[in-house]
Amino acid sequence: MGIINAGEFIETVHIKGLQVSLVSSGDGTEIIYHKLQPGTDWAITPEEGWNAFEYLYIISGHMRLQTKTDHFELKIGDSFSENPVRNHYLFHAIELTEFIYVSSQPVFHHFSFVSKEMMELTVSIEEKDGYTSDHCNRIKQISMLIGKTLKLDSRQLLRLNMASFLHDLGKVKVPLQILQKPGKLTAEEWEVMKLHPIYGKEILADTGITLLVEAGEIVAQHHERFDGKGYPLGLSGEQISIEAAIIAVADSYDAMTTDRVYRKGIPKEKAMEEIQNCRGTMYHPLIVDTFIAIKDSINF
């Protein structure tokens, strides 16, 4: 049971699976309450020019902490601190988890509101593109399953977590008459549509937040193909980041299996077959093999 009542919060931000509430603030120090739903990820990352002391204490629940080289279990009464943060740390809620986070420099508005704004904007644009509001979260879930199976390090997983959810953020700059056109796009319209990965990178770069800037580099590549015939940069093979290669598979699977305004989704098995058929052309062979290996863990 938590030890803080909702009435004690100064401000609260809700992001998918996560509640972040400012409890107290003064002299640059902030005390922030976090509640993570099971399966939700949270992170602490190094930031250029950021020299804060950061500390968290588990009030309830159970989390797994992943560093670049190891895993640790955190339960009630456990704590974690760094001064300053020099590494990437990924926290994964195994069950409903509450913790108090203390930072000696203000962080609440710096990250929580920007992240919330980016995520809400992404969900909004996906809905305008004919997807359901859960599309972004499904891409993130599949991507993280693949990434963890491949044993990506904590920094890669953090970037993958953000980029997979925000992959189509750049569509906000695509005119609605193109985005919602029911028929085939003209050659000129398609050239505009192909710029959305670059637009997404630019939007995230403008936040100035290191994690989002790095996620933007991945967003820019999520429509590249293993054979070099993708867009917008025409990258191929290992030129494409592993995180972007993962998102490409996850996004294609969800696009094929999801009902859209103009067509019905295809069965899960048929989508898996299509992805296997494009192994080594559209998709990185290792990512396809890993995706197929974990297919029974994907329930949508």
UniProtKB/TrEMBL annotation:
Domain HD-GYP intervals: 110-300
Pfam families: HD_5
PANTHER family reported in the protein's UniProt record: CYCLIC DI-GMP PHOSPHODIESTERASE PA4108-RELATED (PTHR43155)
Name under which the protein is recorded: HD-GYP domain-containing protein
Domain of life of the organism encoding this protein: Bacteria
